[in-house]
Amino acid sequence: MATGVRRRASIDLDAIIANARISTSDLSESMADLRADAYGHGFAPVLSALGEAGVRTFLASNHEDAALVRSIDPHMRVHVGGSESAARPLPSQVIGLGLYGLGVAPGLRPTLRLSGEVIAVKTIPGGSGVSYGYTYRTSAPTRLALVALGFADGVPRVASNRAPVLVNGFRALVAGRIAMDQFVVDLGDHPASVGDEAILLGDASRDEPTVEDWAEAARVRPEVILSGLGKRIERAYSRA
User: Fold this and answer.
1) What integer pLDDT is reported at residue 89 of this predicted model?
2) What is the pLDDT of residues 124-153, one digit of tens each?
3) Fewer CB within 10 A of the end CB, N or C, for the chain?
4) Once rounded to an integer, what is the mean pLDDT over residues 60-85?
5) Strands 7-12 and 112-124
6) Which helix (H) or strand (E) holds 11?
7) Cα separation of 51 and 34, whole Å?
8) Contact (Cβ atoms closer than 8 angstroms) between residue 63 and residue 80
9) How far does Cα 202 stand from its chain's mean position?
10) Reduced DSSP (H G I as helix, E B as strand, rest coil) percent helix, strand, coil of the chain, to 5
11) CB burial of residue 30 (10 Å; 0-12, 13-18, 19+)
């Protein structure tokens, strides 16, 4: 088994800023929706990046986040949970889910890449039951990879047996029920090793599974997937 298990969300702050510029004609006169910890991206880093880009008004989930905004820049404004908390009216333009690459506006970029570490690999015979309740059985001898992410990290259990995962360039489905800390992927005869990266959410242009793919598998809206990502997932931020 591997040590130092990786559960990582790689977040592209430049993509968030680019999406903001696509979503509004004037950043300084718009309000950015940073509720639910910036939909799982991390409130403080997203706030700082958008503030540097010129956004002056933000929508937060709670007063703790609102206080953070005022501590960074007293000229910024915050509205909590959609209620009016400042003397001036709300901006006419709200930058919502487009910030995070969700929506139909041309040019929106994915902003978060979620990956887990392969912590075990095993070849098993056909007809074998996989994970709790054996809701998945192998149709032939196959290679299974155990990935260190689970419903305790916000990976939706209802996506069991349906959601896609990319391992070593091979796109497979979750095999069996997603457990608290891990899930299984059926790789067939494709290779994998302990320590390999398994990508759950990423960029469709690189043939990686997307937030929309997992939302469809879980039968929820894409923002539910993002906002449910757990705290023990390491957030790693990048800027050009």
Assistant:
1) 63
2) 999 899 998 889 999 999 999 999 999 999
3) C
4) 80
5) antiparallel
6) strand 7-12
7) 12
8) yes
9) 8
10) 30, 30, 40
11) buried
What pLDDT does residue 2 have? 43
The whole-number pLDDT of residue 77 equals 85
HSE, CB side, 13 Å, CA atoms: give it for residue 240.
5
The residues pairing with 185 across neighbouring beta strands, listed in sequence order, are: 145, 174
10 Å CB burial of residue 206 (0-12, 13-18, 19+) is: exposed
Decide if 152 contacts 181 (C-beta within 8 A).
yes
Name which of 238, 136, 155 is nearest 199 in CA terms.
155
Alpha helices in 34-157 (DSSP H): 35-39, 43-53, 63-72
pTM for this prediction: 0.91
* Residue 91 pLDDT > 80: no
- Determine the Cα–Cα distance for residues 186 and 152; give it in Å rounded to an integer: 21
φ, ψ (nearest 5 deg) of residue 80: -100, 120
235: exposed, middle or buried (Cβ count in 10 Å: 0-12, 13-18, 19+)? middle
Token digits of residue 225: 């997937």
Task: Find the mean pLDDT for residues 19-24.
Answer: 96
Q: What average pLDDT does the structure give for the chain?
A: 92
